[in-house]
Structures are given as C-alpha cells and as structure tokens.
Amino acid sequence: MSSSPAQAIYLRNYQAPEFALDAIDLTFELDPQATKVSAEIQVRALGENRCLVLDGQDLTLLSLAIDGRPLDADEYQYQNDQLTLLNVPSAFCLSTQVEINPQANSALEGLYLSNALYCTQCEAEGFRRISFFLDRPDVLSRFTTKLIADPQHAPILLANGNPIAQGTLADGRHWVQWQDPFPKPCYLFALVAGDLVCIQDTFVTQSGRSVDLQIWVEAENQHKCAHAMRSLKAAMRWDEEVYGREYDLDIYMIVAVNDFNMGAMENKGLNIFNSACALADPQTTTDLGFQRVESVIAHEYFHNWSGNRVTCRDWFQLSLKEGFTVYRDQAFSADMNFAGVQRIEEVTMLRSAQFAEDASPTAHPVRPDHYMEINNFYTLTVYEKGAEIVRMLANLLGPQAFRQACDLYFTRFDGQAVTVEDFVACMEEISQRDLSQFMRWYHQAGTPHVQVQGQYCPQTASYRLDFQQATPDTPGQTNKQPLLIPITMGLLDAQGRPLPLKLKLASGEIQALGLQGVLELTQAQQSFEFIGLEELTEAPIPSLLRGFSAPVKLSFPYTPTQLATLMAQDTDAFNRWDAGQRLALDTLMPLIDAQVTQIDLAQDAPMLLEAYRALLTEAEHTQDQAMLASMLRLPSFAYLAEQYACIPVEAIEQVRQAMRFALARTFYPQWKALYQAQISQQAYAPEATQIAQRSLKNLCLDYLLALAAVPEYQQEVYQIALTQWRTSDNMTDARAALTLLAHAPDASWGRDPLAEFAQRWQQDALTMDQWFSIQATRPYADTLQQVQNLLQHPNFSLKNPNKVRALIGAFAQQNPLAFHQISGAGYAWLADQVIELNGFNPQIAARLVIPLTRWQRYQDTRQTLMRAQLERIQAQANLSADVYEIVTKALQV
Ligand code: B3K
Ligand code: ZN
Questions:
Q1: Most-buried pick from 47, 157, 475, 611 (CB within 10 A)?
Q2: What are the DSSP E strand ranges found in 139-186?
Q3: How far is residue 551's CA from residue 387's CA, in Å, rounded to a whole number?
Q4: Probe ligand 1: pick from 122, 129, 257, 262, max atoms within 8 Å of CB?
Q5: How many C-beta atoms lie closer than 10 Å to residue 168's C-beta?
Q6: Do 858 and 647 meet the contact criterion of CB atoms below 8 Å apart?
C-alpha cells in the first residue's frame, strides 16, 4: 500500500530525466525476513539540477554514501517513497544499503518469496521496493548483480545476463555474480534463488551463435517442461525468419513460480513465469493450456526486441511494447496452429471482453493520458486493442513495407526508450503515408460503430456501399473524431460466387481491386461505388470486414438468406464464421426479448435450423474440424450480453440453454455419430490436428449433455460422459467430461468424478485450480454456497493469485446466473473478497473488483446492489491506490 495519497499522473507532464544512472552494481544477501541490498550506482547529472530524487518504497535505509563518504542526516531526506539527496556532485558513485523483508511481501511486487523460492517482479514499479533508484523506463543502466545465500536453501542463484564469477564465503554462504551487457530500465531487472532443477537445450542462431536455453523449475515439475522448451525454440526461429530478429545473449533462462500476479515477465535473459503459463503435460494440462504456454513463451521471448532492446519512454506508452508484442505472438500462433480459427478466437475475446471494457467506466485509450496506478492499465485495451492497431498498420502497409518499417524501428531505436509516435513515424517513413488521422486509434477510447447500407442499381449495373462511423462518448472523452478504418471486403453474387471489384473513384477513374479490396474509411459518412455488375440479376452480397480488419462493431442489414450464403460460400474463413454468429444473434435476440423458455426450431429459428443441418450434413467429410467446431458453437453468454445496453441475464442464459437443447434434440443422431467419429486411438499430442478433433468431439459432447434431464436420453448421455471421464488419457477430454457431469442438473452426476479428481490431483496445485474453476462455474444460484465452502478447502489459498482467479474470478466472470443472483449475495461476497485482498495484494484486488464496476449494464435492482458494494469498498480505511482508482471511476460515472 502506498503511503502517499493516490494522485493522478499525466502524460502531458512528462519530463526527461535529469540524471543518468549509467551503471548499477547490486549485492543481495538473501534472507527470508532481512535481505540486505547494497547498490553502487554511477550517477551523472545531465543538466544543472543537483538535487537527486530517487524512488524507494518500504525500504529500511541502512547506509548512504557519495564517493565513499557517508552522508550526514541533513544531507538527505527519505519520505513519501522518495529519497532526496541535496547538492550532489555532477558525477559520482552513490552507495546505498537497505534492508527488505521478502517473506512479508504479499503484494508479489519487488522481491518476494514464492514457497521457498526468492523471485522478483519489477514491472511496472517494483524495483523501488528493492533499492533506491530512478524507477522509470527511460533510465537505462548496465546491471551487475551478486547474489549471496545459504547453499542449503538456495543452491541456485540466477539474475540477468551472464554469470561472471562465483565463490564461497568464510561463513559457508555461496555467491554468484551476473552481468548484463545490455543497458536496461530497472523494470527488466530480475533475480531468482532457490532449490531448482533445470531442463537444458541449445539453439543455434541464424548467424551461428549457440545459445544455452534453460528452464528452471521445482524438482516435481521437471516432467512438465518439454512443451515450453519446444515453444521457445519455435519462437526463436520464427522471430528470425519473420522479423529477422536474433537473440543477443549467450543464455536464455525461464523460471516457473507458483505465486505470480500475471502470466509472465520478460526480464532480460531471465523470464519469470507463472507456472500456469510454463508447465504443461497431457495428464494435467488441457489443449487450451498447451496453446497458452506456447503463446506466452513466445510473447515473452518476442519482448526481447519489442520491449527490451527498444523500450518505452514512460508507462503511457505501454501499448508500444504490449500491443506490438501481442500482435507478434498472435501471428506466431497463427503460423503454429490453424490461422482461421486462431483469428476467430482472438476476435471472440476482443468482442466480448475488450468491447465490454470500452463500454465501461474504466474505458481508456490504448495510450492513456493519465493514471493513478499504472498496474491498472495492463488491460485488454492496451494489449488486445493495441495489437489490433498494429495489425491494421501491417495490413495498410502490406507485408513487405511493414517488415521494412519494423526493421527501421528496431535499428533506429535500439537501446532507446521511445514513444508510440516513434513507432508510427517509421511506418510513415517507409510507406510515405500520412498516418496522423490513424493516430486517433491511440488517443480515442471506445469501440467505433460502423453502419453500412447497400444500394444496388440494375440500370447502371452498380452497387454502392454507404458507410457511417461514430465512436460513443467514454468517461472524460466526448466528441470523437472519425478514424481511419480499413474495411477489407469482397462482393458475392446470390449464389456465393466472388465478383471482381471495380471501384469507381471520385475522379471518375475505375480501380480494379481483384476479388478482394480494402476500403479506407476516413470520414463520418462515406460511400463507395462498384460498377461493372452486368452479370447480376439481384443485389450482390457484401462480405465486409474480412479477417476482422478493424476493431469495430459493424452492422449491415443482411437477410437470413444472405447470411446463409456467406456462411457456406465466403472465401474468408473469419467471415464464414461471423455470418453464422450474425445469424445466431438475429435468431436468439428476439427470443431473448420475448423471454421464451422453449424453442421450436422450425418455427422460431428456421434459417438457423437449416444452417446447422447443412453443417452437420457435411460434417462427416470435413477436413477442417477446428473450423466446424467454431461454426457449430453458439455465441457465448458474454457476446450475447455485449449486444444489450441493459443485460437480461436470466433471459440470455435461458434462451441459450433452450437453443442448445433444441439443437441437441433435433440432431441427436448426428451429434452422436460425429462424436464417435472423433474418438481417436492416437496417443495424445498437443498438435493442431488433434486439438481440432478434440474440440469438435467435446463440442458434440456438450450438445449431447444438453439432454441430461430428458428421460429417454438421460442414461445414454450420462454413460457417454462418464466413459470419457473414466477412459481418457488426457486432461482435455477428462476436463470436458468432468465439467459436463459436474454441471448437469442432477448434482449426483458430478459427485464421484469430482471426488476422484481431487483424490488424484490434490498434490498438484495447478491441476487443482481447474477443479476449483469447474465448481465455481456451475450455472445454478446455489453455487455461491459451494464457492464459499471451497474458500475453506485445504488446497485453497487467498494468497495465491492462480487460486483466486480459479475460484473467485471464475465465479464472478463466468457464472452470470450465480454472480448476478437477484438477492445481491454474489456481489456482497465478491466485495468481501476484494476487501480482504486489498489488504495484502492490491493488484489482484483491483482486478477482481472489475465485474462490479459494470453496474450500468444491469437493471435497476442490480445496479443499486452493485453500487452499494462499490460504496462499501470505497469506504474502507487503507484502500490501496489500485482499488481506489477503479472503484472511484466506477462510482463517478
Ligand atoms: N510485461 C509483463 C506484465 C507486467 C505487469 C505488471 N503489472 C508481462 C507481459 O506482458 O509480457
Ligand atoms: Zn507483454
């Protein structure tokens, strides 16, 4: 908890540092409760100012000297997290010694203990909890780090860079000294010490250098590292091939720790990972888990260039490294998996979760202009929408020019701390385009709405598309300006055949675009006219926003028949899927509005019925199970909720379940046959084809279990799920079956399997997280009571962020019926947890409170109840800046 009151920091007040800290030589004498940190810092004044103000938080100052001369008490001040040194020389060596208590550090920021392991997390502002320093990303220093520890407790001592010396002291403690040759901001500093084992490999870079790859874990996790290592090597090769980027040190280390606030951290040469994002084995990890490991390993590796070699000038520029790096890891994952489905998954998340953030009290631009607590800005907007911005740039420039612009960026700014403008300037320079309007994507919060109408004119054989764009107001931002929105598109005839695009320009000139083009929307209203459509007898079908070419909500008055044609025929996989989503929304939303409890497909959903029939008829012959599974999946609760200003919680859930039930019943033989056709005798491997097959199989199982309460199907579907649970050799299938059993209306179905799971995995913390999540997401109101009981379970701990996410996070974010129960009990319980967490881990507390901040989206009773909980939290003494900022924003609107 910060001792100073929370105050906003503004981008417009940025000032360059007045001192350079060229080098820092650190010595850690590690001790659980009293670690001594000595630092020798080479300081150099850059201007006239001789008053040096360093950051430092919760540090016990032991000694302070300038060029070896200890300072008198009147020569410095340490208060409000700042150490002020008056009248310093223009260049000098500052020696500091402080004491810190890693064991008492439950915020998991700075140096802390995870079980018996010392580890650090310094981004964004954790280094100030380790040593006095200029804790800002635009101060780059060369780091040397000496670690001293008891060899019994900490036989392994790791830090950034290369090991340069080691030895043993007279008192029996051992030490290792590390040196990082690359100047870096202190947020990339890391150390790890403890009893670890290592999986080793080597990678030969494109220029022929050999790099040692090491993954460090606790001994019991040694068998779970192969996938991370494979992923790392694939990422290293990919970055060489696609971006020409080579790794720069002789050693690359990854450490997995159990207690970690986020997924992982890209510390130079020493990545620290949440074990959930590094460890994987078929017995305990689902396909999704394997894919997450692959993408997070790649993400952190890619940061070595997009983030570390070229870093951020200030924290407002966070998306400069995060948006770009997410874009890079998405492109990597698309190359490793099925690209179409990969894109569908990215957009699904963006449209349900990031769009919701954009429409909430915590909405903010991809580059925010102020913050109280920077940790609150590691958001979907900064990461995922930031990645969409880079994707638009890549598409606007085309692959060659984009690569050249990236080369220019990496070369020009190597070793520097830069801004979003610097990045976009490289794009401008290479493409010779003016991207000043495009920059609005970084400044304006909110999701743009694009409304499109089509006008077909048989007389002139032309088709005109009329576009309107508008971005809604967001807190603190009104009157948004038009954006440059790239619309990748094509036209289809009524039979679904692609039509050549001949665009009539304002000059009267005709531009032939081939079968696909990109329309650049720049104005609030704009029209595009296509000519030469003499062959047509009726209006063409526009396929708009292919590949989701811009992060917008696009509407077009499609008829159900047009959507069915797009679903079946469009050349763009994403739009085939999205046409299905549109058809499903158009079908489900009127049923939700009517609050129906039963659906007669022939009457209530004739086109959707036909679409499913067509998909299931072709299913047997499909080569693309991944795509088929995506096409057959109904829109999620979250995506449906996003369509409503006021979310009808029960009606959405009721209609989704009724539709699932109706589809299950109508196509029961097809689901069963398709399910059986996907059962494979192959040994489990987390590779794309198998993953696709399992996702289709488990989707079929999901439909089958929709009939769990129907007497004539009950026994059969129960046996199918139970058999899968009992016989599967991998967690993907086991978890899918267990979830469906545990979520069945008859609670007895899940009882034994859940007990068996706990019995088998109680020693395995990560695996037990899944057990907590499955129970937290049972879609019944009485789940709250069960979740309350689970808080007391011996495997649960509020101190472990993974557990908090698995139980409390899953309940609040993935169990709408139970969380939003009209009594308000779900809200009150969440608030209790937030208040407790605020006391020891503000970052996690601030994440957890988010569902309550979305109160505006629910009906009055819920609004009142949610606000009451926010007010209760706000009234707490000792509220952290993290929670204070979020709660205040939520109550201000
Ligand atoms: N850069 C880190 C996130 C740090 C979060 C600090 N609260 C992980 C990543 O995005 O790669
Ligand atoms: Zn990142």
A1: 157
A2: 141-149, 156-159, 162-168, 174-184
A3: 10
A4: 262
A5: 11
A6: yes
Task: Enter the DSSP assignment of 475.
Answer: T
- Taking only the tens place, the pLDDT of each residue in 560-617 is 999 999 999 999 999 999 999 999 999 999 999 999 999 999 999 999 999 999 999 9
Q: Annotated catalytic residue: which of 300, 345, 346, 388?
A: 300
**pLDDT for 2:** 41
CATH fold of 449-550:
Immunoglobulin-like (2.60.40)
Whether the CB-CB separation of 201 and 234 falls below 8 Å is answered with: no
Quote the ligand 1 centre to 142 CA distance (angstroms): 21
Q: Write down the pTM of the prediction.
A: 0.98
The phi, psi pair for 514, rounded to 5°, reads 80, -150
CATH match for 1-110+120-194 among 2.60.40.1730, 3.40.630.30, 3.40.50.720, 2.40.50.1020: 2.60.40.1730
Q: What is the mean pLDDT of the chain?
A: 98
The domain 310-443 is classified under which CATH number: 1.20.1270.220, 1.10.390.10, 3.20.20.100, 1.10.150.120?
1.10.390.10
DSSP string covering 247-262, please?
Answer: --SSEEEEEEES--SS
d(CA 499, CA 565): 14
Residue type, 184: K
| 3-state class (DSSP) for residue 43 | strand
- Residue entry with tokens 């002789």: 250
CA dist., res. 176 & res. 193, Å (int): 10
The pLDDT, as a whole number, for residue 5 is: 54
Which tens digit of pLDDT belongs to each residue from 250-273? Answer: 999 999 999 999 999 999 999 999
Partners of 166 in beta bridges: 176
pLDDT grade for 855, boundaries at 50, 70 and 90:
very high
Spacing, Cα 397 to ligand 1 middle (Å): 28
300 Cβ below 6 A of ligand 1: yes
3-state secondary structure of 440: helix
